[in-house]
Amino acid sequence: MHADPVLLETVALSKQYPGVLALDAVDFDLRAGEVHVLFGENGAGKSTLIALLAGAATPSSGAIRMHGVRVQFASVHDARRHGISAVFQEFSLVPTLSVAQNLGLGDEPSRRGLLDCAALNARARTVLAELDFDIDCAEPVSGLTRAQQQMLEIAKGLHRNASVLIFDEPTASLTDKETQRLFALIAQLKAQRAGIVYISHRMQEIAQIADRVTVLRDGKKITTVDARTVRTDELIELMSGRAIAQIYPDIAHRPGDTVLEVTGLASPNGVRNASLSVRRGEVVGIAGLVGCGKSGLFRAIYGLDRVSAGQVRFQGRLCTGASVREMLRAGLFYLPADRKSEGLVPGFSAHANITLPLLSGPLRGCGGWLRQRLGRHLSVQAAQQVALAPRNLDKSVALLSGGNQQKVLFAKGLTRAAALYVFDEPTVGVDAGTRSALYRVIQTLCEGGAAVVVVSSDLPEVLHLSHRVYVMRQGEIAGELCGDAIDESAVLGLFF
Ligand SMILES: Nc1ncnc2c1ncn2[C@@H]1O[C@H](COP(=O)(O)OP(=O)(O)OP(=O)(O)O)[C@@H](O)[C@H]1O
Ligand SMILES: [Mg+2]
């Protein structure tokens, strides 16, 4: 059965970070021609394992073997020379350089000692065309959307002649079409006998492409299973050590006053003639393909992007073009999709990030003193609601795993009451157990009388949580669905 040769193997591999044993004596092996999924809760050690495999970090103990021979990687570059190439969770692109320059970084073509720009561009175009990714080679990376940056990161990882390819949540912000394109490519790599390590929290994806799944928990390997025979609920139980009965809660629908009323809104960010309303006691979903303008809509309402036409009425007051500060004060909480650039201060602890919005208000005592105890109490409580382990509160958020950073961002919204909560892609990168905890937070907010908007590319999420759904297409609202009319085919029909 397992006649395929082992390409890469770890023996009792461990990684100790200050205060955390992130990886604890893990034995793992990757065979030629397989997709091997790493599965586990946020902070389980998945990214740490691949950082060691890809030369981005050095093991504290244990060994890595390639084709049975022990190897040690001095750098990512060194691992690449051994045929191991990784697409990391956090992007490593240089924002000021163009797409083509980023793709060529490290092995630029030269002619008579000079950089050969024509060859650089041609090579980039070929790589992107092969992937069918629609990105302009001359564009600086700073001008790309998150999805485009993700595509570029993937293209960067692929274009070397690698025998081991590693993907850390590569589809987090891709559209379905791009995801399917990536999967076709992975199938091609498998056929060429490459080995693929793939990290994902998405069960559907795992079912579609995995051959084997290794489950990690608290840095330890729990087991490796055959993906064809394991069931989804078994995997989730292995991951978290407990069964999760129901991921999506049934949220009571008791619509009250209209909190937000938008008419004919337009923004230079691509939104055109958008009208919608949101009431207290309801969850409104905003669905649409990546790049359809659904993020732009609420960015404009919240004051992050400019409004060029139309009206925004919030809590009965006209607030068209108001600043973020004004909207916050008026009672709108907004969770941005891009946690890295907009939501969190990386050098601050999780606790400091969570209490940041309170510094000018409830936490200011007399004489300029901060009410530390209250702040502590509020952040501990918020962390508990989003299932963030208390030991993570005092860590700098830059050192938290990707999913745990998302929890901190979510927790930031829970320390003071708002009339409207807007969550843009709330569960990107969070594990199934946490996902269910975050949905229960949304339920509590909504049933407590707040209005909730969930902007999401994750269709099942929108379908299960929303009482009403607006579907966006090319910057416009293509339709609205209510109650029982919300189903997959109706939403998809409005997508295209
Ligand atoms: N550079 C670092 N310094 C200190 N601790 C770190 C560092 N990198 C990761 N950790 C810690 O190591 C543990 C494992 O993190 P890792 O990023 O591997 O998790 P993960 O399984 O990839 O989670 P996620 O699904 O959220 O991406 C976490 O407790 C994390 O906070
Ligand atoms: Mg990770």
TrEMBL record:
<feature type="domain" description="ABC transporter">
    <location>
        <begin position="8"/>
        <end position="243"/>
    </location>
</feature>
<protein>
    <submittedName>
        <fullName>Sugar ABC transporter ATP-binding protein</fullName>
    </submittedName>
</protein>
<dbReference type="InterPro" id="IPR027417">
    <property type="entry name" value="P-loop_NTPase"/>
</dbReference>
<keyword id="KW-1003">Cell membrane</keyword>
<dbReference type="InterPro" id="IPR017871">
    <property type="entry name" value="ABC_transporter-like_CS"/>
</dbReference>
<dbReference type="InterPro" id="IPR003439">
    <property type="entry name" value="ABC_transporter-like_ATP-bd"/>
</dbReference>
<dbReference type="InterPro" id="IPR003593">
    <property type="entry name" value="AAA+_ATPase"/>
</dbReference>
<keyword id="KW-0762">Sugar transport</keyword>
<keyword id="KW-0547">Nucleotide-binding</keyword>
<dbReference type="InterPro" id="IPR050107">
    <property type="entry name" value="ABC_carbohydrate_import_ATPase"/>
</dbReference>
<keyword id="KW-0067">ATP-binding</keyword>
<feature type="domain" description="ABC transporter">
    <location>
        <begin position="253"/>
        <end position="494"/>
    </location>
</feature>
<dbReference type="GO" id="GO:0005524">
    <property type="term" value="F:ATP binding"/>
</dbReference>
<keyword id="KW-0813">Transport</keyword>
<keyword id="KW-0677">Repeat</keyword>
<dbReference type="Pfam" id="PF00005">
    <property type="entry name" value="ABC_tran"/>
</dbReference>
<keyword id="KW-0472">Membrane</keyword>
